[in-house]
């Protein structure tokens, strides 16, 4: 977990530092555009991924800076991690304890999961958004998962091109073999993740539904691969220069709210937000059990859409979570009841008015 973090020329932060001390949770408040989310985005880069907004690396640099930036954090084990971009570069670089490292090395050092306002309507938006979200969670435990998804997208494009150019059946068989084996591996990762996170997901249950996932659950991985390969062989026509086939790219995820006995997508916005946070907390427990690491949970606009009762539950859950939580919000008063918190005020890209809550363990 993070003990101190410094942002240099990142977004609208010229030079900002937050020292956590012994607080368990960090609450960042301030007006819109003040730089609250930028702090969470900087932390999310320490996961080795593209960050919680997924923007191009160059867009993360301060507008009137030299084109570079750095995010430097000291962890509670006194090791250091850093993500930086040099002026004129196009790719991020990483360091661990001042030694050059890969972005994947960072992923082994810090386990980070996040929610942004974009996910508040996850259950009622497109299946593509849900696949992206859950595949990112599944990749927390299977590093090759996202690589497989990238690979199958490339194979699908190659297959469409081969069909369009009239490639022979042997060439298409070779492509379809690769697609079927990769698709089954992705589906198996998804099924495994849903099963494991559901063990800790007391208020809900994750399900995954798709042609290949269902084949695996009905038979086994080997049979599913053979059946899907045969399916691809029989469907080698283009409709309007596009392939119209079923597969891993059409699977969908769902969440069932056990307390309400309803699918999450037909509950209120606040109830959807609550179950989503419960899912992230379950995911954090799974991380701790499987890796023996305490994860970081980033919640942008954490209390949005939550009523007072839901906020109270959230704050209690965050305090009990075996994780370090960083949350943002507009109004500090909304968060006053959260125990063990460091309150940070962010104004115009500057960190100020650091106040440690006087409430510890829920007591004044």
Describe this structure in words.
It is built from nine helices and 17 strands. With 364 residues, it is α+β, with helices and mostly antiparallel strands. It has two domains: 2-111 and 293-356, P-loop containing nucleotide triphosphate hydrolases (Rossmann fold); 127-253, RecF/RecN/SMC, N-terminal domain (Glutathione S-transferase Yfyf (Class Pi), Chain A, domain 2). The strands form four sheets. It has a six-stranded antiparallel beta sheet. The chain has a six-stranded mixed beta sheet with strand order 8-14-15-3-16-17, sandwiched between helices. Helix 3 (127-138) crosses helix 5, helix 6 (211-218) crosses helix 7 (221-234) and helix 8 runs parallel beside helix 9 (308-320). It is globular. The two termini are 26 Å apart. The model is unreliable at 356-364 (pLDDT under 50).
Summarize the structure.
The chain has nine helices and 17 strands.
Features:
Glutathione S-transferase Yfyf (Class Pi), Chain A, domain 2, 38% helix, 6-stranded mixed sheet, 2 domains, 9 helices, 364 residues, disordered C terminus, alpha+beta, Rossmann fold, 6-stranded antiparallel sheet
